[in-house]
Amino acid sequence: MEYFHVIIKNVSKLTKTTDIIVDLNRSEEYIKEKVAKHYNNGEEFIFKGRNVDPNYVELVNVSKSKKALENFDATFIPEAFKEGNSLAVILDHLEAEDVTELFITQQLKPKTKPTLQQPTESVSPSSNMEMIKNEEKKRYAFFISYIWCTGFQYARHLRENAYRIHRNAFLDKIDLPNVAEESEEFRTQIDKAIESSPNFVLIMTRRFSESPEVIREYKKAQNGKKIWRFKQKNLGKKDLTCDSVDFVNKHYIEFTDEFDLLAKVDEALSGELKPNTFFEKDVKALTESEGVELRQTNEPFMEVIVGPIDEKQEWLSFEDEDLLNRNPYVDNFSSVKAYKDFFELEARSNYTARTLLRIKNIGFFHLIEPISYQNEFYIDNIFNQAADMLLYCITVMRQKNVRAHQSAYIRLNNVRRLEAKVDPHQLSFPKWFFPRSDPDPFIIGFDPSADWSEIGQLLLNLYIEFCHSISYNEPTSAEFKKKLATHLSRQSYYLRYSLTYHRLGQTMKIPSINISDLQLSDH
Asked: Would you call 473 helix, strand, or coil by DSSP?
């Protein structure tokens, strides 16, 4: 038996529950920094031993001078170790007056897949089924989704300390210890846990978007669950890129370590923390001085911002003034005027503009508009204002052959506690109310050059989110699609009219959008 010594001198009065991960394949400076992060009071740390054979499985024998360490988790096998990259030591629930020496040993094991927990006694099929039935009855405050190789330490700490924030959580490796991974039964239990949890917590660490199981769980949660995305602070847009889910344009909350994650989850679920996105940083920088007076009104209004998410380059010029005038916000009393590096909607003499429309030459669209209503609010009409803004931007970009990926930010203001009805064209329809606070901004990404069918799916997803904001839900997505197709056909500016504009002495035509091209209707 070969010993790996991790000597911690003069560590006294450890009174808090802590997890430490020591990676013996990393540099001595890294290990010192990792441990000192938790015990930063000038102790001396001496670490010896590296280059662990990945065919060995970790066992831990702990000695100390005054009393035995209890509740030490000697069966935890980290994902990185299973892949042969490193050996990790987990010190769990340490409470001691004086710890002087920790001996870490390794013992040869057969090349079998290690398990997270070894049952102390055999489990019969009947008892296993009883355990599953008990799990089915549980209601969890939140479900934890993560990737093994980089996210388990955060997920495990969150699960084991959820009681500290007065909540219970589901984590597969702890709550399904006797169900074989990758089995049909395992997936069934995962799906039931998601269904029984009102909140879905996604821990976004490196390579999380490459995990098929994480993506599967995420898509399962999109069916009616409140999704919370917690992004490790150092992750960039490339780390959030995924072929099947647009994580880049989704809301997220940043965290630094497992303790910060626990605190952020508590604040988020308590309604004390608002998420943000990459695009919101650009929004704040580019719009903080625009439309200030309109934002200060108590009247319900909508703010829509559309712009490039990455590279910003100028693609609009003075000659595009007439093209930009082809929108629902221009009438006999106002028009879009060109300035040096932006365009703006201006009221003609003797009239006051109640709508802000400013467009920068980089194609950054900013609209603030009162929400139209006649004593009653209809979610369909509110959505139509946002849809026409999006179609306006998409139409302009398609005419200019813009192919850069775009983001859209849509916020409803001063609508809290207001009644919002659904589908005014029916004789009877349910009544819903906005919650006590304005809904979170709706943020989506899109490719302006995509097929119209993709634009139709974008509008459908956004419409569903609008309806969910007032707790309205159709029994099937087909019903949502039918309702949206009917409404757009009757109300949308760009589905009802063909438009013309003049550029460089030529007359250009913008044909109306065909509802069949959006693939929202079966007719």
From this structure: coil
